[in-house]
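CO-FOLDING WORKSHEET

Operator: S.A.
Ligand of interest: zinc ion
Run index: 405
Mode: holo prediction, single chain
Checklist:
[x] sequence pasted
[x] SMILES validated
[ ] output reviewed
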Amino acid sequence: MNLALLERVAGDLRTALADYEPERITGADAARMLQGFAEIERLGAAGKLLSARRVESSNIWRQTGHRSAAAHLAEATGSGIGPAISALETARRLGSLPATDDALRGGRLSETQAKEISGAAILQPETERELVEAAGQQSLAVLKLRCRRVKAAGADQKAAYDRIHNSRYLRNWVDPDGAVRFDAKLTPDAGARLLAVVKVETARLTTAARRVGADDTPTGLAADALVGLATGGSAASVPGEPGDSRIGGEDGGPSRRGGGPAAMVHVRVDHAALRRGHVEPGEVCEIPGIGPIPVEVARQLATDSILSVLLTDGVDVTSVAHVGRTIPAALRTALVERDPVCVVPSCEVSEGLEIDHVRPFAEGGPTALHNLARLCHWHHYLKTHRGYDLVPEPDGWSFRPPGSG
Ligand SMILES: [Zn+2]
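OUTPUT RECEIVED:
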């Protein structure tokens, strides 16, 4: 590779483009041309990244009067400083990732793909080949997801989660038009819960808007939904608040306290990881569409009534276990039949009974009749928060205080 060759290639391309008239070629040819230019773009990105690394290490950027190598790159490419910093990070990682470097030089990776792969593979080099292969076969969205999983498995997930939690915020300001604007940063689980209730309420408002022929935009209705939910104008059901350990209403269906929506947050987690308490390489614990969460957070959510957990074994969903408000009606009916009063011996409470997973869901206890029991609020509290145990006996249950085996 030398500069004269590069200038000749660029010159040829410039000449060819000067009289390129895409309107005069067929769609099929246009598609082939598109592919060709995309490859040139990828090769260009490869040459750019490799050169940028040398620009940085050589300190030539100082002599050209730039504050940093990134500033030099930003000016040379007409990009922003943010993308330039990110490109330099990618360029540096390529030095220790031979398969990625090779695929990039071969025109098989775009800059974005190289950035995603290198960011993950630098933490877990044994995943590099598989990620490079995936880039050739799967969409960028899928590749990004795989890279996020690799990063999550390699990183201290709890620490990453805590960093987000510690830097969470809700800010608001008034813009020059006089509109009130918001920006928020939330943990993935908090965000998923919020989005789930907003989504359900938005769907309700959309139906109502259609009925009267209003032409509100989906994002406009989502804004109405958020305001309605937050101000109680449209009653929100936010289950799982302190003292509410109910996992099912007595009406047999999803409870809608105050008429608000019953929203579900889905978590996809490997059964083994849920039991173990952390993910190992190849396993996932994530909120689909949002991203990985620590298993500990998933466990906390598992006691919450708005969670549904997809238990997976690798990529296949082996079972869908719903906790809380989605205990199937038939199961609920069978429970009401079997447990007319709190199952704790000598407790006669029959009102407001709550359904308990005898072996906690987070520990692998199934949502099945043999693992469910109806308890009064007090006994449910003792079992959930005070270490009491509900133990099956031939003729019912025994309720044992902590430490009694
Ligand atoms: Zn009781």
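REVIEW:
Residues 35-155 form one domain.
The radius of gyration is 28 Å.
[x] output reviewed
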